[in-house]
Amino acid sequence: MDSKFKRIAKLFQKLPGVGPRQAARFVLALLDKPDSEVEELGYAISNLKQELTTCAQCFNISDGEFCAVCSNPGRDKTKLLIVEKVTDLDSIEKTGLYKGLYHVLGGAINPLDNILPVNLRISELNNRLELASAVAPIEVILAMNPSTPGETTTLYLKNILSAKPGVVVTRLGRGLASGSHLEYADESTLRHALEYRK
């Protein structure tokens, strides 16, 4: 392959989840696109940081001070769902079932990767809760991923938030997936299924 081709492919490899073959496919696909589409993509990428930012309240992706969720007056302000990343927020939003507000932590506690509570948006969460719970009781729903860092973060937040007046802490249900068989479930899944049964 040409050195310029390899250089462009290496730039794509800097994106998460993109390996050498996928990066090469991206470059080849762009070579097949009309110039106008490639220019549009280039313009969008070069202006990405100027056109997109994070919401001043929940830290979702936004093109203004507040995101579409926070600026929607119809959202239930008595519910605040805590997620690790914007992609988690997006997944929950796609279900259409949740009508409350969000708070994006920016990750999960993981001392092995030097991610401590101080590195997350926990102080911003505390500030939001102080203001919100002074007006009306608020339910905080912990929706971290079912991983070791996610569980660590859930326990940490549960401990510090449960003591706050006007704040009720809940978490997403965990357990057996629809269509699964008990004999194939691991101990952790079965424990969660029993602990969070309805």
From TrEMBL:
Every Toprim domain range: 78-177
Top-rank taxon, per record: Bacteria
Pfam families associated with the record: RecR_C, RecR_HhH, RecR_ZnF, Toprim_4
Keyword check for Iron-sulfur: no
PROSITE patterns: RECR (PS01300), TOPRIM (PS50880)
Alphabetized UniProt keyword annotations: DNA damage, DNA recombination, DNA repair, Metal-binding, Zinc, Zinc-finger
TM region(s), chain numbering: none
NCBIfam families according to UniProt: recR
Functional note: May play a role in DNA repair. It seems to be involved in an RecBC-independent recombinational process of DNA repair. It may act with RecF and RecO.
Family statement drawn from the similarity comment of this UniProt entry: Belongs to the RecR family.
Protein name: Recombination protein RecR
Species assigned in the record: Candidatus Yanofskybacteria bacterium RIFCSPHIGHO2_01_FULL_48_25b
Phylogenetic classification of the source organism: Bacteria, Candidatus Yanofskyibacteriota
Name of the encoding gene: recR
